[in-house]
Structure prediction request, 335 residues.
Amino acid sequence: MNILAIESSCDETAVAIVRDGREALCDCIASQAALHGEYGGVVPEIASRKHMEAIYALADQALKETNLKRSDIDAIGVTYAPGLIGALLVGVNFAKAAALSLGVPLIPVHHIRGHIAANYLAFADLEPPFLCLVVSGGHTLIVDVRDYTVFRILGTTRDDAAGESFDKIARVLGMPYPGGAALDQRAKTGDPRKYAMPEAKIAGAPLDLSFSGLKTAALNLIHHAEQTGEELDIPSLCASFSAAVTHALVPRTMLALKETGYKKLAIAGGVAANSQIRAAFERETAKEGVKLYLPPLSLCGDNGAMIGAQAYYEFLAGHTADTTLNAFATMPIDA
Ligand code: KG4
Ligand code: ZN
Prediction:
């Protein structure tokens, strides 16, 4: 089954064609990141307009790259939640028109379910149930993936997402948006123990996370240095901050593995590209005899292939929509 999948929830317009949920025949992406960089973050109006400009050409490119005809497309998958509402609507309306004109099913896909499904493209042997840590720009979730379309949230952030806090610190340090990858790069030559960072614990909720205190502590450190003229060791600050995020994520995820008894852990979302986080999970899962699924960097950030992968399993579960489908800015993964 060939699914043409569309993703437009934030600042990447993406169209992919995925066969049977596991094989990306192409993964076409038009990133707007550089454009939004001028403003230090995503400008929703600009994002919607750029999606409109890019989406038709990307769909044509996907057919061209795969040598497929329109009649070879068996269904259309599309991200319909969560995300920027105007941006989502561009993808949803394009998908509706495509499904209607081709006479094929329309499959709505939850963006975070898509991030998890990126792992199905990278690992042919991965099947639910397993545990997944989702760390993206807007979400931080420890998820029990009971089945392809059955999820239970075990832990989540009480305030900022991991990616959001990376981006904020990177921005204050003058790195271009989105700064997570640049901060990770700078951290490589730094000493992760040089700057002490606070650790948040939530009473009665050992799997929940909080990044706002950590973010504020790092910002205070930077502002204090600016005021006193102290020269900061930027690589070490980046390394210390990344280490603090890593120390928040890894033990909780390992605890969730213990509680569920799962021996399979997948990581998903843009922040899964972080080198310290990847290294720490490799170390800890090896110690505990847990099989780790770390998708390649190309499948960590937003892409269309992950939506095509999840769309296949939503279709098998009977989750299709008609042309009344709407987009939603927020929606829980287990709705
Ligand atoms: O999953 P994603 O592409 O978009 C959302 O659904 O939010 O995640 C984007 C986030 C941004 O916050 C970006 O800075 C972060 O992932 N990111 C990283 C790295 N690469 C991307 N954060 C830390 N280290 C990285 N190497
Ligand atoms: Zn995403």
Observations:
- The chain has two domains: 2-116+300-316, 127-299.
- The chain has a mean pLDDT of 97.
- The longest helix spans residues 234-260.
- The beta strands are 2-7, 12-19, 23-31, 75-81, 106-110, 130-135, 140-147, 150-156, 264-268, 291-293.
